[in-house]
């Protein structure tokens, strides 16, 4: 038993995180790799069966993990973003959901040959688009803000609603099977309304309590995040006691309430929950897929395959088309949202539990619900995972795939640097809080952003034109460090740079903490005053010719170097990376064919005349 548990933990944790790293390194959909890994562990090699190893605690553990995921998603639903996607989200949740329920049930009955009871349960389960699948896909694709908001809000809101809907359909079918239809009005509807109201109250009240206690210094900082996470799990368990599925609604509402009540300390929670979310999603997908038995896969038949294709190419597109008629969505957005609808963990968990209950109640073809849902999950994850980026690019719903550089601080020399990068065709945005400082860049056609990046509004504005690298180049070294420290968890600590705060302040023990600042751009002596002085003397930024061959003489000098005639600032690898030179580089930048260096050079000397 202990050996099996140790092997299982090693397979799930090691394999899951390894798959996430491979997906990040090679820009692949992580969900597809996790799904494939689970199939190899379980039905393939018969190495891992979590429900047998863990026993009766497996499904409660899965439910708690799903509750954490929807709570994490709820923290990202700020109503201030509703203006960008309000109408579309409302239609996708209120209008499209019942349409997809009806069409999905019809497809299950007439195409998949399921009996009506199993068909209605199947239709209720597949209305869910899982945040466990959608959110990781959105992280790897630079979608335009509005269409990304559509998919994010729909996935997070529909998850608990879909789970409650499936529970409602199951209870109705169980009553019908027992021939006590009068109980539908007498008991089920009041029970449903009570559970829904309780889910809303249990979500809002703890958030208000946390805000009240935080403002009165009644929660120590070391306990703030543990208390919030405990409350999220508690409201889920309490509401699920009254009705299966209501706990997901309570956890989602709790996260949304915390986000919209603007409770202090949420930035630390967001960073922790994102890391935990990656770990939880990785483990869940591997375990649930590995728990599939070969008997389930053996039930996959031609009618189930046809039903899956009908849901993909008919049910979802028609549901979106009907629900978004006469809306403000463009035809590209309607087409894209009609195609992208991957199902995830909630659909799998609900199908596994509800399908067994329906089968035990004696409904014909109830044992086909789980294989049908599994086929849809697998198909949507693979097709949507690999097609999301190319289809979004073809419909012009993505931002540039080239790495984007954000430069904070619009001085004369930083504007010239942004112009040099912009002329190379590399995406760049110049950020400052003063419109006058950005005027010169705007006249030159350089993208600008007037925002305070240490504010929530500024962060949201930067998310609308996401950047990959950042250089903080204001005269205030402390402000530069604050910006880098704030954005490092989003960009990556090796991708945020600042002009040097001074040689003495870079001491790793007595100087500014490395966690409180960015990497130094260039040499430690290259502070803001140096760049300003050189610019006043006529020095300017320009691009060097591309490297012709890796083995040839490279125009790009080693990282952060200066040869007396120029300062090497960065190397641009089109479509791949922006390598900002830094004295803190572990190894010098090795130029490759096609690399373009950006340098700061003095003005050309006047031509000598009268010489032989």
From TrEMBL:
Record keywords: Antiport, Cell membrane, Ion transport, Membrane, Transmembrane, Transmembrane helix, Transport
GO biological process: proton transmembrane transport
Cross-referenced Pfam families: Na_H_Exchanger
Molecular function via GO: antiporter activity
Cited InterPro entries: Cation/H_exchanger_TM (IPR006153), Na+/solute_symporter_sf (IPR038770), NAD(P)-bd_dom_sf (IPR036291)
Record GO cellular component, one term: plasma membrane
Membrane topology: Multi-pass membrane protein
Keyword Transmembrane helix annotated: yes
Keyword Transport: yes
Protein name: Sodium:proton antiporter
UniProt organism field: Gluconacetobacter dulcium
Lineage: Bacteria, Pseudomonadati, Pseudomonadota, Alphaproteobacteria, Acetobacterales
């Amino acid at each position: 038993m202990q050996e099996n548990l140790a092997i299982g933990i090693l397979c799930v944790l090691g394999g899951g995180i390894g798959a996430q790293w491979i997906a990040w390194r090679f820009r692949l959909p992580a969900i597809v790799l996790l799904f494939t890994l689970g199939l190899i562990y379980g039905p393939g090699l018969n190495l891992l069966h979590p429900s047998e190893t863990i026993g009766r605690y497996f499904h409660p553990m899965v439910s708690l993990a799903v509750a954490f995921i929807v709570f994490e998603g709820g923290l990202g639903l700020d109503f201030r973003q509703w203006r960008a996607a309000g109408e579309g989200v409302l239609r996708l949740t209120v209008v499209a959901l019942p349409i997809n329920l009806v069409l999905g049930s019809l497809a299950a009955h007439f195409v998949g040959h399921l009996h009506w009871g199993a068909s209605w349960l199947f239709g209720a389960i597949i209305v869910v688009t899982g945040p466990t699948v959608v959110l990781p896909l959105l992280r790897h694709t630079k979608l335009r803000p509005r269409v990304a908001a559509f998919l994010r809000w729909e996935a997070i809101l529909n998850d608990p609603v879909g789970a409650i809907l499936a529970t409602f359909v199951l209870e109705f079918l169980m009553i019908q099977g027992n021939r006590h239809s009068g109980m539908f009005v007498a008991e089920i509807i009041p029970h449903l309304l009570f559970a829904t109201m309780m889910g809303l109250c249990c979500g809002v009240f703890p958030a208000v309590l946390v805000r009240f206690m935080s403002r009165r210094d009644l929660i120590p900082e070391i306990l703030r995040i543990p208390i919030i996470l405990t409350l999220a799990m508690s409201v889920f368990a309490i509401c699920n006691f009254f009705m299966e599925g209501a706990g997901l609604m309570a956890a989602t509402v709790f996260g949304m309430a915390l986000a919209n009540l603007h409770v202090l300390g949420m930035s630390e929670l967001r960073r922790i929950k994102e890391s935990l979310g990656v770990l939880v999603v990785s483990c869940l997908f591997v375990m649930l897929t590995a728990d599939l038995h070969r008997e389930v896969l053996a039930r996959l038949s031609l009618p189930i395959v046809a039903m899956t294709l009908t849901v993909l190419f008919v049910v979802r597109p028609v549901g979106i088309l009907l629900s978004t008629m006469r809306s403000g969505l463009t035809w590209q957005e309607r087409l894209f949202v009609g195609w992208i609808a991957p199902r995830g963990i909630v659909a799998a968990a609900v199908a596994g539990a509800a399908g067994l209950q329906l089968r035990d109640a004696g409904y014909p073809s109830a044992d086909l619900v789980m294989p049908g849902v599994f086929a849809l999950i697998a198909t949507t994850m693979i097709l949507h995972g690999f097609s999301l980026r190319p289809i979004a690019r073809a419909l012009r719903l993505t931002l540039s795939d080239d790495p984007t550089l954000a430069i904070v601080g619009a001085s004369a020399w930083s504007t010239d640097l942004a112009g040099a990068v912009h002329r190379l065709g590399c995406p760049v945005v110049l950020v400052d809080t003063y419109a006058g400082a950005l005027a010169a860049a705007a006249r030159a056609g350089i993208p600008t952003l007037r925002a305070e990046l240490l504010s929530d509004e500024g962060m949201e504005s930067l998310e609308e034109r996401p950047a990959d690298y950042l250089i903080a180049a204001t005269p205030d070294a402390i402000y530069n460090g604050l910006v880098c420290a704030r954005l490092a968890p989003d960009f990556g600590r090796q991708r945020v740079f600042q002009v040097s705060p001074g040689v003495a302040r870079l001491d790793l023990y007595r100087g500014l903490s490395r966690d409180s600042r960015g990497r130094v751009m260039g040499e430690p002596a290259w502070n803001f005053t140096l760049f300003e002085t050189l610019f006043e003397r006529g020095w300017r930024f320009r691009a060097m010719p591309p490297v012709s061959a890796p083995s040839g003489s490279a125009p790009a000098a080693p990282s952060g170097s200066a040869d007396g005639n120029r300062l090497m600032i960065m190397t641009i690898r089109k479509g791949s990376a922006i390598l900002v030179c830094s004295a803190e580089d572990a190894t010098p930048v090795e130029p490759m064919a096609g690399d373009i260096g950006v340098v700061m050079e003095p003005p050309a000397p006047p031509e000598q005349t009268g010489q032989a």
